[in-house]
Amino acid sequence: MNKITETVIEADPKVPVIRTARDFAATPEQLFRAHTDPALFAQWVGPDGTSTRIERWDASTGGSWRYVSVHEGTEYGFHGCFHEVRPDRIVQTFTFDGDPDGVALETMWFEDLGDGRTRLRTQSLVDSFESRDAWLRSGMEVGVNDGYAKLERLIADGAV
Amino acid sequence: MNKITETVIEADPKVPVIRTARDFAATPEQLFRAHTDPALFAQWVGPDGTSTRIERWDASTGGSWRYVSVHEGTEYGFHGCFHEVRPDRIVQTFTFDGDPDGVALETMWFEDLGDGRTRLRTQSLVDSFESRDAWLRSGMEVGVNDGYAKLERLIADGAV
């Protein structure tokens, strides 16, 4: 298995899914914590220059979440519920307030690569290719890349 | 718009989605209640001969649910979270205990047809055609048809 040092972002050709993959110098437990501890999550999610305010957060199976990201004075709200939160996988729903009828089903997997490294894979599923491709055109890769770079620095700094 | 007196069940050709549609002699408010009141829901969901035990039920945005259906002595558990519960639409996740890694994103719409009639449309989205087609082969249409027939009788009896 090759190392994935940059974030890989792929659109599935057959189903309306976006997948990402990236390796981190962290254990699965650390990556799980970075996705479930609200104070940690707020430090890395989103593009550079964004500050994130957590408004609701119960990262457990059947819980729910809501946060607002502030970028250059504009607020962007997101919310969803946690379908399942377990050490190797989180499944949650995701809606952007700006598109209130749009819903993605998101899955994150924490795959232990050994030697203190973990592959983070994600999948976002929506109900049409039009919605999926609108997400891809929205510049989501900036948020993903910037966010994971911030997460990598937090890990290197021993903050996770 | 034609009346839909039998349940229409369709597999989308392009995305891994199952859709259903059926008209009821009920208001949107009544159909909403039949899907959110646990005592009512337990009376109609599932195939004939099934009894349903609600184990967790918070039918509100960010809530969660779990029920067990008992059919000929065998228990079948299902669970998920409520992404959004609003008068015209419910979005929730859905997992069958027998396939714990499988997750569907389900949407129900209550469309007012006027004259005390409502069209109930549903959509189940999964992440592969294989999973979708396995659902279709599982005999799900029996549960859907039997369930909606029970719901229709409850409505006719004034129980909703």
UniProtKB/TrEMBL annotation, chains A, B:
Q: Name one Pfam family in it.
A: AHSA1
Where would you find the membrane-spanning parts of this chain?
A: none
Q: Which residues form the Activator of Hsp90 ATPase homologue 1/2-like C-terminal domain?
A: 26-155
Q: Which InterPro entries match?
A: ASHA1/2-like_C (IPR013538), START-like_dom_sf (IPR023393)
Q: Which domain of life is it from?
A: Bacteria
Q: Which family does it belong to?
A: Belongs to the AHA1 family.
User: Can you say what this protein is called?
Assistant: Uncharacterized protein YndB with AHSA1/START domain
The species this protein belongs to is Thermocatellispora tengchongensis
